Amino acid sequence: MSQVHPQARTTPRTRAEIKASAAPVTELAERYNITVATARKWKSRETPEDLSHRPRKLSTTLSPSQEAIVVELRRMLLLPLDDLLVVTREFINAQVSRSGLDRCLQRHGVGSLREIQAALAGDQTVPPKSFKDYEPGFVHVDIKYLPQMPDEKARRYLFVAIDRATRWVYLRIYAHQDEAASIDFLRRLHQAAPMKIKTVLTDNGSQFTDRFTSKTRAPSGQHAFDRRCVELGIEHRLCPPRHPQTNGMVERFNGRVSEVIAQTRFKSAQELETTLTNYLATYNHRIPQRALNHLSPVQALKQWQAKRPELFSKRVYELSGLDTYKTKSPAANDGNSNWTLTPWSTDSRCAVFSLTKRQRIQRSSVRRALRGETTN
Q1: 138-311: in CATH 2.40.370.10
Q2: Parallel, antiparallel, or unpaired: how do β-strands 235-238 and 157-163 relate?
Q3: Taking the domains of the chain in order of start, what are their residue ranges?
Q4: CB proximity list for 329: less than 8 A, separation 6 or greater
Q5: Which one is predicted more confidently, 235 or 244?
Q6: What pLDDT sits at residue 338?
Q7: In angstroms, rounded to a whole number, what is the distance separating the alpha carbons of residues 224 and 8?
Q8: Which of 5-14, 217-226, 235-244 has the lowest mean pLDDT?
Q9: Which of 94-103, 232-241, 242-251, 342-351 has the lowest mean pLDDT?
């Protein structure tokens, strides 16, 4: 099937008619409401199809022989793009750019190193499992340092937990980051989470594991946090050493918290705690996320609970939205006007009571409408 340019003034049918017509180009241009140049172009064109606008000769830094060498280096040595760029600039062409080298690899079909490795291995590798493929109950836990407030003598620590599948977040502030704080946070998390927590992923901090305090450099399972996980029926997993990206989801939320703190000047520790509590409620109930198909974490939890109720230990509650009230259009002065529902806010509240002289007489009716009573 032919493809036509989205802004084309002609179709393949009209182009074929122009090609087959014996009329002069001026008459054809007037007949089809096109320019004389367009009519002349399709009169002399062999095919009615749109041609590619790509240059027939690409202006590249690498010569064809140099491109062949680069492609073979990619296939033989399996070098990443940055490493291949260093080799190319050192031994082949010093003027090549990173983007130009990447386009060269794409043109020759060796742009994806993962596909090349899979083809050499002769098997179909399983794509990595994304976070959205998990069920609720896989929780990432991390600790964030909080700035010291003017009325504090020492800084405090924010314990954060986020569910991998729904991005639901729970947090709590502690004065210390020790075993007692981690155990208390796990207990409170288990009580607050609406879903059944199956797995907890943490880093290798001493408040979570004895991995680097033992001689064997392996977790013994006898750490207080491990024992508490066993009591609650939770599997405790640890991030690989020197791989903080494994816990990247909670690290990203910590970045959000840092942005909130950087944008606000706090006078006390209580103000900081109140701000974080309000932001937590806003994040869980009001902020839609692209990874959740533009749903908030609580909305995603409710969807999961409707599909898989066995994954949950309690009902998921969503904060109520804006209140509504009944008001009459200011232009309507008759007694048969309809009342409409409007979101209640500070601005709309001012709009309701900024009434004309005649409408102020009906203020009692407006107030009854605000309470949901029937107006006469």
Answers
A1: no
A2: unpaired
A3: 64-121, 138-311, 324-370
A4: 337, 340
A5: 235
A6: 47
A7: 71
A8: 5-14
A9: 342-351
Distance CA 136, CA 309 (A): 11
Distance CA 365, CA 252 (A): 51
Distance from the first to the final alpha carbon of the chain: 66
pLDDT at 315: 93
Q: Which amino acid is at 219?
A: P
Backbone angles phi, psi at 299, to 5 degrees: -65, -40
Own/partner pairs for 88-96, CB < 8 Å, 24+ apart?
88/62, 92/62, 92/66, 93/61, 93/62, 93/66, 95/61, 96/61, 96/62
Contact of 132 with 194, CB cutoff 8 Å: no
Report residue 373 as tokens. 């009573």
Residues linked to residue 170 through DSSP beta bridges, in sequence order: 161
Residue 260, classified by CB atoms within 10 Å of its CB into exposed (0-12), middle (13-18) or buried (19+), is: middle
Query: Percentage of residues in the chain with pLDDT exceeding 70?
Result: 81
